[in-house]
Batch of 3 targets.
Target 1
Amino acid sequence: MLFRSQAMEDYSEISKNLRKEAIEALLNYEIWWTYRDPDIAPMYTDILNRHSTFFTTSKNAHFVAMVLPLYRIFETRKDSINLPRLLRKLRDDGILPVIQLDELDKQYQKLKPAWLKIATLRNEVFGHRSGDLTVEESFKKAQISSNDISKFIDEILILLNKVDSQLNPDSYQSFQVNSGDELKQILTILKNAQTGK
């Protein structure tokens, strides 16, 4: 029983690390999307144009900082912390009932096609630069929209919460973050400073 308890703690730690990756992706997504949001960005056009080098670089950096953790969560390396490895170890070690693991695997498989699109961006644009395709061609090949990415992140968080709640029933966490709101506050401060308000 002591061994099983220790194993549960180890798996909970892995799950917690994966959730941190997903939250990192979400925080960066919210900032990146705020720059692009057609309902928000036009309100700050003057500020964004006035400091265009910084804000263009920031927008691109947040996109990359979103793609990389999304890639890491689903990568299939046997020597890194990733969801496929966690699910496989939970099954191999008999940590959770088979019926629960089957449901988690089913949800993982449902998310895998979106991850393959993220992997295209990571492998051909950000982690490596394809010698066969331009950046634009790699994005076209990936065929993933901002809505697809948002939904993918939401579904990852739901899946990771399920994994964690089955390992530790008292561990449910809400993923309410507001990095986009914080960017809007910064842009508003800059806009008000520019107009003298």
Note: The helical segments are 2-36, 45-50, 52-74, 83-92, 98-126, 135-142, 146-167, 179-195.
Target 2
Amino acid sequence: SDFARYPEHSHAVRSVVAMANEDGRATSAWEVNFREGILRWTEEDVFNADERTIVFRQIEGDVEHFAGTWSVRQ
């Protein structure tokens, strides 16, 4: 969930700027290498440590729709 460190672990991720919001949600701005160019988007992120999930949805960016959930399971 430490999005700002993703560029250290993946050559595809160019940059991530993570910003906390006052309501407990977060926003992150992403740039990744994609095909022959750069894909950019900003997403809203909801972290739930008890359920070990991150729910995300794009709020602006290069693609029409981008949303989903990351989860950690045993």
Note: The longest strand covers residues 37-48.
Target 3
Amino acid sequence: MVVTIYIILIYDITTDQESARIQRKVFTTCKKYLTHIQKSVFEGNLTKLKLMELEKQIRKYIRQDKDSVIIFKSRD
């Protein structure tokens, strides 16, 4: 039996010269895995493996010193 986790993902990209490109990349990546709810909010059910893939892909674009991503996890 595959266990899925209900995810709410929120991101915030600092506005600067690179922000538009980064926002597009993060948005597109999140859209592959989750349902778009609001400007920078996504939700959906993922397996642990898919969640790890999503986090790995987002880390390629997020600047640790400027941007943030918050992922809320729940089994229900």
Note: The chain has a mean pLDDT of 94.
